[in-house]
Amino acid sequence: MNVAMLQRVAQKVGMPFWICDAAVLRRRIANIRQLTCGTGLQARYAMKALPATRILKEMLANGIWIDAVSGNEVLRARQAGFPGSSILYTSDVFRDGAIGTLLEHGVMPNLGSPGMLRELQAAGYAGPISLRVNPGFGHGHVNACDTGGPSSKHGIWFSNVCDAATQARKLGMTVAMLHAHIGSGPEFPEFLDNMRRLAALFAEFIPKFPGLNVISFGGGIPFNYRDTDDQASLEPLRALLDESRANFCTVAGRDVRLEIEPGRYLVAPAVILVARVSDVKRTQTNEKGKGATFVMVDAGFTDLVRPALYGSFHRISVAGRDERDGTSDVVVAGPLCEPGDVFARDEEGLLMPRPLPLPRAGDLLLLHDAGAYGYAMSSNYNLLGRAPQLMLEEDGSVTMFSRRETADDLSRTETDEKIL
What we know:
Layout: H1 3-13, E1 17-21, H2 22-35, E2 41-46, H3 53-61, E3 65-68, H4 71-80, E4 87-91, H5 98-105, E5 108-111, H6 116-122, E6 129-134, E7 156-157, H7 161-170, E8 175-179, H8 188-205, E9 214-216, H9 235-252, E10 257-260, H10 264-267, E11 271-282, E12 293-297, H11 306-310, E13 316-318, E14 328-333, E15 354-356, E16 364-367, E17 389-392, E18 398-402, H12 407-411
Parallel strand pairs: 1-17, 2-3, 2-10, 3-4, 4-5, 5-6, 6-7, 6-8, 8-9, 9-10, 12-14
Antiparallel strand pairs: 1-11, 11-12, 11-16, 13-16, 14-15, 17-18
């Protein structure tokens, strides 16, 4: 993305803004389609990563189904054109009328807690269900994202899954699917090792579930945020999926569909958060610690919270500036009245200055690989409106698929309605 184009966009829509490269997004989708092109393999998009309707329609056009984690995500997917039968609802707790949404739209629930069975039965649900298994291992791309094991809240502990299935049968529900999400792990080899462990666990479960016809390995395909040129080949994963499905079908004595549900892999590298530098200021070393050079920008953790929340790494660059001309160690910081509003922290929360060409006021600063859990986790803290989302099309045109939120938008839910 060249700086002149970004400056023209900024003049049209203001700052900051998100811009998605359609070519990158479609390449990632093509990779997943190739991974699952065999019979009996199906990909779902974990839409919590980036639930914009514009993105959902790209998935729909390419035969990728949906994993939703709320009733409202289900409704968004339905509005985008997905049939209810192509949507899976995965949750540990029902809220916001989710059960009614499932009933209305014919969506299968993927239950992460046994008590959810009672709520489904009370609502009159008698259809097929999926059970989400906590296999006792696995974790996300950072330690704070614990997706499997004793300290993870997700799923039903693997030794309790058969009890949950027995309870489901007593309530008239068939367990048609088993699901687990072990996270991406820090390295691709560890991810593959965990997937093999998961395949072995599922193979043990299959004989105990006579109505089972789907196994989901969840999401978690790793993405290297620190070096986007060093991305692992998906071929070993393809071989593992093919081998696992063949084994599942043999053990079951019938056809078993195998699913994966990438989110991060599909959208992370496609989106950049664009901010403008407002100032560069410095603190001095004293008895409390080392001084720092702060690059102040107009995007904050209301826009991209992952660095503040997890110490997550995102590449940062200055549009139109070349690092070969020299760099300075700087801390990029946002506009919020919060000391944690910086984009350069490590997992322990300590400042981690980045080497960048020393920015000047007015420069555009780019936060890369922000498509996954960027806009999706943005907020209105400090009553800031969420930034607009734009699409850079392959012909060079730019369209806006969500506008900037205004003060009126933020006040729209306020009311004086008397309840009691």
